[in-house]
């Protein structure tokens, strides 16, 4: 199973849509800022399941702040990250994922792409979807529970 993961697009949706067309994922994830950008994905790719959370710049959010997403045999926790103070450390995010028995925690907010493992949880921030270093992530989950993540330029 392949998932395209975006965060912090802040209204810049053209390259995000093009990335989905190229990658042809099985599902889409948007991690907030701006929540309405997830609506663009929903309109452009109605056949793909879409999971989205709100961010700190989503002032009247319709999406939840945190959600659990089944990625094949792996449970992923998705959140924007501001509620876990990810700009100041990842411990709160790791503990929350561990409590939810999630092997993968997807977050944004910092606008810095990151992929690392802490405490048995793989942490992925796809970076920001706009600006000179715009990026997104492709997550592949295998039937045996293996996880591969690749951060890609937009």
Order of helices and strands: EHEHEEEHEEEEE
The CATH architecture is: 4-Layer Sandwich
* Main β sheet profile: 5 strands, mixed
Low-confidence stretches: none
What is the end-to-end distance? 21 Å
CATH topological fold name: Purple Acid Phosphatase, chain A, domain 2
Class per helix and strand makeup? alpha/beta
Number of strands: 10
In order across it, which strands form the biggest sheet?
3-2-1-9-10
What does this structure look like?
- With 154 residues, the protein is of the alpha/beta class.
- The chain has a single domain, classed as Purple Acid Phosphatase, chain A, domain 2.
- Helix content is 19%, strand content 33%.
- It has three helices and ten strands.
- It has a five-stranded mixed sheet with strand order 3-2-1-9-10, covered by helices on one side. A five-stranded mixed sheet has the order 4-5-6-8-7, covered by helices on one side.
- The chain is globular and about 35 Å long.
């Amino acid at each position: 199973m392949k998932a395209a993961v975006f965060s912090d697009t802040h209204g810049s949706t053209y390259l995000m849509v093009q990335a989905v067309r190229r990658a042809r994922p099985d599902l889409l994830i948007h991690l907030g800022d701006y929540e309405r950008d997830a609506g663009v994905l929903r309109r452009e790719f109605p056949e793909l399941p879409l999971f989205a959370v709100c961010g700190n710049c989503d002032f009247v959010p319709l999406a939840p702040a945190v959600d659990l997403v089944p990625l094949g045999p792996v449970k992923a926790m998705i959140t924007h990250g501001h509620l876990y103070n990810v700009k100041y450390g990842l411990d709160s995010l790791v503990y929350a994922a561990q409590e939810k028995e999630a092997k993968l925690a997807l977050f944004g907010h910092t606008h810095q792409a990151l992929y690392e493992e802490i405490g048995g949880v793989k942490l992925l921030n796809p970076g920001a979807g706009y600006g000179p270093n715009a990026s997104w992530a492709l997550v592949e989950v295998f039937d045996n529970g293996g996880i591969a993540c690749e951060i890609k330029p937009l």
